Structure formats: structure tokens, C-alpha cells
Known about the structure:
By secondary structure, the protein is of the alpha+beta class. Helices cover 29% and strands 27% of the residues.
Amino acid sequence: METQKIQAYGDELYAALRECRMVDPLTEREPDISIEDAYAISSHILSRRLADGERLIGKKIGVTSAAVQNMLGVNQPDFGYLTDRMVVEEGGVLNISKLMIQPRAEGEIAFVLKKDLQGPGITATDVLQATDFIVPCFEIVDSRIRDWKIGIEDTVADNASCGYFTLGQMAVDPRSIDLSTCGMVVELNGQVISTGAGAAALGSSPVSCVVWLANTLGRLGTSLKAGEVILSGSLVPLQPIKPGDCMAVSIGGIGRTSVRFD
């Protein structure tokens, strides 16, 4: 795809983000759009956000579990960028009625790095050694693509359907627990709505997702940086949310976090 067209689609999605409005799927308008084109569009959106004063603080991995892949009709993981304006304090309130379009929430495990990870060739051992701690996390995703009618290229271009996220406060050494078997329980308004386990992440563990991201970025000539927050992907189905809802996630051996929506 020509650079001019990549920038035009990036500007369109950036405007949709700021104005909380939907756009038609890029895959309908550009049937030949590639994954590489989509990541170039996402990168252009990031440049617009940074120019607007936001600060890059990490990355997210999306579409890692079979439950989410089946829900969205997307059969491979993707990644997007996290900025400081996407953080919601633990137990805080997110005004989705003003800030989001068609939000959904998912429970995850977040990794906070103490060392850089430069792929390719990164292994699970490398990820564990580079991780400072892990915490429970909610990611509140959103799509600027109309009615969530997304192909993999649509969600990649739209910064992996990023929205906001909240992190728990209990920091845990990832080497102290089995991240493949740790269980997750998600509650909506006090009722359990879904459960999952670490093995739901790429059929293995959340560590495998970070391995995938580090090696994918390495092939693109970039790396994960010390201090970055890495959201490793959902272990449970996405949950549509509305104003007035409250959600909590508990993860065995890691802790609990919650978020409310207005």
C-alpha cells in the first residue's frame, strides 16, 4: 500500500479515536490490505498520539485465546501500543459513555519488564528472567471498526482494538507460580461470568504470548524495553459492558483487581 494511503487511513482511525465514532472496515475498502500495511497504519496512529503529548509505556498482545479468536473470527494474535493516557487506576471509574464506542472487557495477566527483550530467538526463560513482576489486569478494549466487523487487518490497523487498562497492585514474581495452570475468575456486578486458566494463552501460557511478541517485534527491528507494561492477552471471553457495570478479576497466586464503568 502506498505511504500516502497508509497515512490517510491512520489519520482516519486517529480521528475516529478522538471523536468516538466508527468507520467502515478497512478490509471492505481495501481487499488487498496486508498485515504489514495494517501495522504501518497502527504505527502512524501511534505517531499522532505521541505528537499529541501521550507517552508510550508498553504494548498489548491481542487475540491469544481460542475463546476470543472464535468470538471475533480472527485466528492469530496481534499487538498494539499502550500509552499513559490509557491507564485507569485500580478500583477507579472509567467513563465509557463519553470515552468509548463499543467497549468490551477482558481479564489478563500483565508483565512489567526490568530488562530489554530483543528478538528473534527469545525463549520463555528469557521472558521470565527479564520480567520484574506480574499483576492481574483488566483491558477494556474498543473498536473504531463498525459493529466489530473486523478481520485481522482491521484490528491490527486499529491498534489491536486498544482502549484502556487497569493493573492490580500486588506484584508477584512470575517464577514463583505455574502460569500455565493458574486459574482466573471474572465477575460482573458480583456474579461469576467466566473462568479460565493460563494454558488458554496460545494453548500454553501467558509467557508464550510475550515470547511471540518479542520475536515478532524483533523481526520488525524493534524490542520490548525495560519498564514497559506488557498485556499478555485474555484468558476468558470478551464481555460487553455498559455504564453502571462493575467488574473484578481474580487470578490464583497473583491477586485481584477491579474497575467500574460510568
